[in-house]
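Reopening: structure tokens for the farnesyl diphosphate complex, inputs below.
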Amino acid sequence: MKQSEHTDGKQSPEDFEIQQKIKEFGSIPQHIAIIMDGNGRWAQKKGNIRLHGHKAGVESVRDVTESCAQLGVKYLTLYAFSTENWNRPSAEVNGLMKLLVQALRDEADRLIRNNIRLVTIGQIERLPKKCQIQLQEVKELTESKERMQLCLALSYSGRWDITEAVKHIAEDVAAGKVLSEEINDHLISSYLSTAQIPDPDLIIRTSGEFRISNFLLWQLAYSELYITQTYWPDFRRDELYEAITSFQKRDRRFGKVKNGHNKSLASTVIDQIRS
Ligand code: FPP
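Re-run output (same inputs, fresh job):
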């Protein structure tokens, strides 16, 4: 399949057929979160500067976003810039911010055409003004879109998210709006930046690292992990399909036993027949 067929919004019959098979095979994760890693190494392996890898990474963002929407994924969260990424050399940080502005300008129409809403989580006020303005513009332009929500985690960290939630809960307890005995899982989730979004069903990490890297620490409690050696700029829809079919084969029990029974399927059937 030619890459152009992936990215121009026109879907090839072959790709459509693959997606239909995946949908028949099992349920599609409602929320996929991705740690997009390996841009720098991808570029360096090719003898290029790291920014070249980030530029190529935008192509993967486009292809994965579009194919998630086509498959019926409802929420896609991308770890685009972590709180820790501010410690990178300023040339790389500035380059990434310019790339983000450019990508938002280039992709706004495609998001609208594909009926995708853009939202963000993180300390957006730390981003350069130009980024903030561009983000705001695309958020407003796509506000009514409801096929899928694309959430960019920018200047985000899981510990920051939890810390902010704790501060706000403490304020509300002090103001008498919340009783300390009312604090539970659900209440904490409702104070996080992802309050409006269900927890991820599937978390994908590229470039072979086995870490969560301060991403959605609270929200990933029961997410299925898919780790691939592929660097992010090489991660395209065919590997997304691999990740989803791998997810579909998992037995998600959320700490419980299947269907509330502490029995295998075979022993359940034997019991039913003998009773
Ligand atoms: C990690 O690779 C990637 C990032 C820190 C930035 C991701 C940004 C993009 C894909 C481009 C812009 C994004 C959007 C949403 C338009 P790395 O640099 O840490 O790679 P390395 O581990 O090989 O050094």
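The domain at 28-157+198-254+263-274 is CATH 3.40.1180.10 (Undecaprenyl pyrophosphate synthetase). The radius of gyration is 21 Å. Marking as resolved unless the reporter disagrees.
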